[in-house]
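Intended use. Records like the one below are meant for learning the mapping from a protein sequence to its folded structure. Do not use them to infer anything beyond what is encoded.
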Amino acid sequence: MADIQRYPIVRHLRGTPTGHIRHLQSGRIKHDGTGLSFWFRPLSAVISEVPVDDRELPLLFHARTADFQDVTVQATVAYRIVDPATASTRLDFSIDPNSGRWRGNPLAQIGSLLAELAQQYAIDLVAGMSLRAALGSAAQARDTIQAGLTTDSRLLDTGLAVVGVRVVAVRPEADVERALQTPTRELVQQDADKATFERRAVAVESERAISENEMHNQIELAIREEQLVSQRGQNERRRAEEAAAAGGIEAAAKADRDRVLSAATADVTRLIGAAKADAETAKLGAYRGTDTSVLLALALRDLAG
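Structure written out for the chain above:
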């Protein structure tokens, strides 16, 4: 929008780089161009401002297929005004000399024109298709709409040019869309169930392998435990045999020792007895021939002691 400065008698307009200004005074063109800045008298000036930048118009309209199904087409049309002078004569782009605002709504007129034309081309295309074909015709609808708008005589006469067309989606009604999605969802669910079953089968197989591995481990442990018990029995038996052998050797040694000790004791006792016998014999030999009174006195002495 142009910037207009107000002064007592005159006004000053300063345009924008994307706004084409067309200034008429008494039916004659005084200024015509983009990005202008000039003084003018508000009572005698007729000024139009035509935007020359690219603009996008979102569209949403309904169409009916050959099998009587309603579809919604969502598209975007990018356009620009390539001939501002022609557009200013076909549409009301005049601005208020005091505020710089448009007196009418020219962009709404352009939007309505583009929407009607695009809708007509899309309706003609979809009307010859079935529902399934229409749902996959976004690219064809884009090309058809762009070709139609590019060559439309009314747009060319108005100074408009279509830069590009985008068809975002072609969608059926909500219940029809759910019905169409059901087979695909079922297939996806079947694939998911199949994956679940396969995962469970793999889990069962893994569990069986783990169980077999555990069983083999237990068997191996039992075999090793049996070997350990057998080895322990052999060790205990060997230990007992060695202890018995050691006890026998010790008993034999003790018996030999006791026998030697007994023999030595017997020898000592025999020698002592012989010595005592010899002593008694000698003592009796000494008393032999002694007077009886002397013997009696000796006996009384021993008795007293």
